[in-house]
Amino acid sequence: MNFQEIKRTLGVALWFVFLTFPIMVIQVRQVDMTIDWRWENMIYVGVGTFVGGLLWRFALSRRKTPGKAIPKVVSEDEHVSLEAVAGTGASLKQRLAALWAFVTQQKFRRGIYIAFAVLLVVFPLVNSLYQTSIMTTALIYVMLALGLNIVIGLGGMLHLGYIAFFAVGAYTYGILNHFFGIGFWLALPLGAFFATVAGVLLALPVIRLRGDYLAIVTLGFAEIVRIVFNNWNSLTGGPQGIGGIPRPGLFGIEMNLSMATTYTYYIIVAAVALTIFVVWRFYNSRLGRALVAMGEDDIAAESMGIDITRIKVIAFALGSLWAGMGGVIFASRTTFINPASFTVWQSVIVLSCVVLGGMGSIPGVIVGALGLILIPEYLRAFSDYRMLMFGAILVTMMVFRPGGLIQKKRKAYTFPVEEERTS
Amino acid sequence: MSSACFRSARTEDNMDTEYFFRLFFSGLTRGSIYALLALGYTMVYGIIKLINFAHGEIYMIGAFIALIMSGVFSIMGMPTLAILVLASLVAVVYSSAYGYTVEKLAYKPLRRAPRLSVLIGAIGMSLFLQNYVLLSQTSNFLPFPAMLPTLPIPGPFRGLMNSSQLVIFITTAVVMVILTVLIKFTKMGKSMRATSQDRTMATLVGINVNRVISWTFIIGSFTAALGGILISSFIGQINFYIGFIAGIKAFVAAVLGGIGSVPGAVLGSLVLGMAEAYAAGYISSQYEDVFAFVILVFILIFKPSGLLGKPEVQKV
Fold first, then answer.
1. B290 contacts in A (CB within 8 Å)?
2. Which label site among A96, A322, B29, B279 has the fewest CB atoms less than 10 Å from its CB?
3. Mind telling me how many Å the CA of B12 is from chain A's nearest CA?
4. Interface predicted TM-score (ipTM)
């Protein structure tokens, strides 16, 4: 960082002050035709972009390969010891990396998972109803993010209409309950089923599309679904939506609000556990690996004998299934649904969770979803800036760390035979 | 007044034809606005192969700045025509500056990144700009003053379109002509065409590709902002969300005409505008937004290269 660069950053800051001037400083009150001059915003923008610009420049100079995710190659039987770096002249970064590797190594991993599970189970017992309710929302997003991760993280297909399947699930429960009085436990598999069918229906026309076109068509699909729900008054109640959806039942036991909230919380915990298990099994299956291969290079994958059509349909179907289930749980939690909950920007929120956490990495996606949903809930003062931050996160993550916070690890096979041969 | 008397004397059949032609001009208006937006998409796509999701937001920002500046100028007590010219000028210049900055900030660092990263970055930029306007201005719909000058409407079209629509047609036509000249006959246009054909080769023959890309964004943003101002003045209200759907539809129009082709973008926009107007007029106006996406899906399945585009050869 030399003087020249600081001078240039100052120029950039001035440019942004100029750029944001009409929108951030001037506000015309149209009622009495007066102008609010908000000069203080000019200073905020100037100082903010100067500091931000310095950080940006610093980060850009440290970035090695532009925008390319490097999956780490790990072998399962790695042995990590802290002694390796203890007495040596290793840098702080190396030490931290060694510490991280030590904490997350194989023999501790099970303990960490159990600790998390216990934490989740006791959460509603030690926290208030409000906290439990927030956590339920966050876990629904975890489920959505895990499902979307199959399509985006593994298949490399930008799916911007994911929320449509969530809507299909929610409306399945809402409509079936409204007209036929079907309960939660029957609606859960039905919602998942209809969402999967919708996923296959979307996948069939878009199989041949890639990249940008796929993004736009999925987005269009979600808009179509939302508009249909919005206008089909006799079935979906139009913009007013469907109210009075019952909470999940438990053998007909009457529950008060606090019990019902806790019960819903445990249902979503179980559902998330199931999602993690299935998705994890899928990642390591033949199909999962085929999907990863397709995401990296579809032509190469096809020439290796992978049926691209089949794998794409499966990815969409499996992704949508979790959204459908999440939708049913969402409907039973809020007891009220309307089309406004299922806009394109909801899809983008789920996308942000996946991108921040790490595309293709299960723990990454979980951390990303929990972080992005819980942090704005606790920082109420900043909740207006939530969507602004999501936008900024998407851009900066793509520029500086496209692999996400916890990058996906690629499995590698070790060949113990090698040593025998050399000896 | 006289036209109203004249209309009441018409037969049922005449009413139908009149309705048909009114829809025709309404479709032409939409088509013109889509064309102004689609040009930016198609030019950017032609050069860096990226859907600039933030393009619709530039259109919205253009309209917003025009609204703000017209407020400021009218408080200063300027005459209407001066307000129109100055506010539009400021808005268009600022929008070009936004387009330029967005490219430098979000897309330039991702020049060599995988497609997926760039697309996610573009979506993020769109979300950011929308919320930037929402937070610093308002989330409400704001009334947009009718600033467009009143032109006399040629005889046969009286009653079928209004003066704002005529202004929109004329402006769009003029912009198209200027842009065609710019791309066909100037040195910058030549470098743009060269860059879109083969970026590496363009660099080798001494074209400053970064500068060409910047200019593409500036020109695209310029026309988008113009579209934003015209349509807001025609409809009479704006909010921070107008850019997104308009942007997506303009993209559909660009794909319909063959993405990367400038005449294709204009043709696709007019076809889409007409199709939407007739579908809304004769089938259902509630499902207006659905038609664009249905058209998109069909065109992508049956003729992915669009009406005037060249088929894209996939290279390994």
1. 223-224, 227-228
2. A96
3. 31
4. 0.84
